[in-house]
Amino acid sequence: MPTHPAFPFPAEHALRPSPLLTEARSGHAPIRVQPRYGDPAWLVTRYEDARQVLSSPVFGRDHERAGVPADHISRVTPLDVTSDTFSAQDPPDHTRLRRFVFRAFTPSRVEALRPATRRIADRLVDGMIAQGPPLDLFERFGLGLPLEVICDLLGVPLADRKLFTEWSDALLNSTGTTEEAVASVEEMNAYLAGLSARRRQRPTDDLIGALVRARIEGDRLTDDEVKNLLRILLGAGHETTASQIPNFMYVLLESGEYERVAADPGLVPTAVEELLRYVPLLTQGSLTRFVLEDVEVGGVRLRAGDQVLVELAAANRDTAAFDDPEALDVTRKDNPHIAFGHGMHRCVGAALARMELQVALATLTERLPGLGLAEPDRIEWHVDRFVRRPKELLVTW
């Protein structure tokens, strides 16, 4: 039996891609790796190869179509975090369900949420100032902002919001047990089923209410479909952005670019795009793709039934796609990054995440221009999860 390098690769720093990724990309062709769970997979690191895999219908998200058993899926967490959701489906089911969700996350609807998001951000900063430094930016700001926004949008009661952070922690932690992950999914499913059932009895104007009563061309969602949509929206709608806010602030503060953005607020949009390109988020790189028919990628023949992981962080630093990709340039204009993925499975909440990150950076640099790291040499990082972030980010001002 051939052995393959363990994946994710070790890195000198959680927010700097492993040198092994650079080595793999310089070799051009995909390589075989062994993730923590499941079968070996092909790892794609080049930008053009990544776009091919993420956009071609030859690479599906439904493991059953490729004949891959659920317990053989290549992954870094004990449980496939997207199972039973539209993220793990292919057309026509994926297309049908995505239509219902996308209507809530169009750029115009997301932009309408910006004033309310700014009010939440200002209130959180007010609380930070009242408490005084040093404090944990993740706990006091990064977590609260996206969690409040997505819960307000969906209509989740304020008193229940902490539950979702606990469930997400259990699902995204690679060192937990499968039993713990399954229990978290079952608890979340039961809770969300109760919310949607109440909306059917008593309609509301929030997103849960809208999904429950929505009809597109005479079609409507079943209770299970509503529940599964809500699970992925609540998880992806707060965990990823909550992690990237402290990640972004760490990189800006460490590099000295925070002061530059604070002095020129007009840099916020390009700074956010550059940080999305530059800062790795997913430890796995991408959700697993399954090869549905023999295909060539980067000169390598992949067979039907093979599994593929796309390393977004490596692709986003490909010299074939970006000028001086190892440099953080908050003024970068030409920035076709694939931090949100690419193709039909591109993150449906990309517009919401982008707006939240812009509001977070604008609010912090405006209200706390003297922000700094309190203990930069003592930061511990979560690298045993599906997403990266500091365990806490102590800041002062």
UniProtKB/TrEMBL annotation:
The keyword DNA damage does not apply. Signal peptide: none annotated. Keywords: Heme, Iron, Metal-binding, Monooxygenase, Oxidoreductase. CDD domains: Cyp158A-like (cd11031). It holds the Pfam family p450. Belongs to the cytochrome P450 family. This is Cytochrome P450.
